[in-house]
Amino acid sequence: MTPIVVITGVDPDVIESVTVATQFDLPDPVVAAYRIDDATNQLVRTVSDIRGRLETERVELDHGCTSCAIREDVIPTLRRLQELDRWGAIVAQLPAGASALQVCRVCALQTELDGLPLHIHGVVAAVRGDTVVPDLTSDLTLGEHGVPTFAGDDRGLAETLAGIVEYADAVQLLGPADAAGTDLLNALRRPSSLLATDWADLPGGQLVTGIHAHRQAEKWVAEVRRHDLPALDSDHVWSLDLCADRPLHPDRFASALETMCVGSHRIRGCVWLPTRATVCVLDGAAGQVRLGAHGPWNGAPTSRLTVVGLRDHAEPTDICRAFADCALTDDELLARGTRWNVRRDGLEPWLGGVHDLI
Predict the structure, then answer these.
(1) pTM assigned to the model
(2) Where in the chain is the domain with CATH 3.40.50?
(3) Please, what CATH class does the domain formed by 4-221 belong to?
(4) Alpha carbons 343 and 328: distance in angstroms, whole number
(5) Calpha distance 166→184 (Å, rounded)
(6) CA–CA distance, 225 with 232 (Å, rounded to integer)
(7) For tag attachment on the chain, is the N or C end more exposed, with fewer CB atoms within 10 Å?
(8) Domain CobW C-terminal: where (predicted)?
(9) Average pLDDT along the chain
(10) Do the Cβ atoms of 206 and 122 come closer than 8 Å?
């Protein structure tokens, strides 16, 4: 079975540099490199190895879901390259802004269902060291930052990079980061992942052996997190683990969104509303935040938001207070319970109708 390594990031030049450096440590690798041609709204795939370019193809994409569109081409390409059995390793260089999450999920699911092995051996996030802090706290969209994206892709730079770092098995820095940037990456990344500050920190032998921990990665990025989070010891970064074992009042929650979400910090997690039977997910960074319905609860409903920010950018006190004020009071619980039968709750612009099925 040919080892597969996926490389992601938000800076095309950094992604390419990390890909080239990784190739030198892998046995006779082939690279499937993807980029987005924003002028034509096409996905461009180039396959090459040490002997040169093998193919270049442009893929027409009919919809604006970046992760789904990329997954639809990456999975068949990886399987085709693996079946050829001509190389010692396969590197999938995803386009800037694309997460490896969907690719890894489909590989794991197909392997489980049809028994055709397509195992990801490592997911590497390529990050530019000297811009870690501005990239993770910027309120710009990917397009405004100059990252080629599909038409209609309005994702924020900070939320996209944070998600990529959180899912990765290894974060490879290109150039050094300052102490605040390093602490910010450590607060976001999975504790069992690697932070490689030098090329020697991530030798190809580890990637070939396999460092991808699929279940751990899924657990770390889950919308509903039920595990304990590690304590953060940093002079530069603060973190919050906001939990409520009762629903949040929809009106107070809507009013608190600005206080909780506007700023340079990262916020993500699940929300339990008495007007909704589904998991409500809050996810974003630097004020670019998405609120959506995720699906039915698997286990007891809960509200839990994790927040990470820089000490010299904001203080967490107001966020804590705003979250706490959202929870239903004892009197409200006694009067109305945890499930309210209402026609509207004011959150329809984000979550759809209160009786919509997911």
Answers:
(1) 0.94
(2) 4-221
(3) alpha beta
(4) 19
(5) 11
(6) 17
(7) N
(8) 237-327
(9) 92
(10) yes
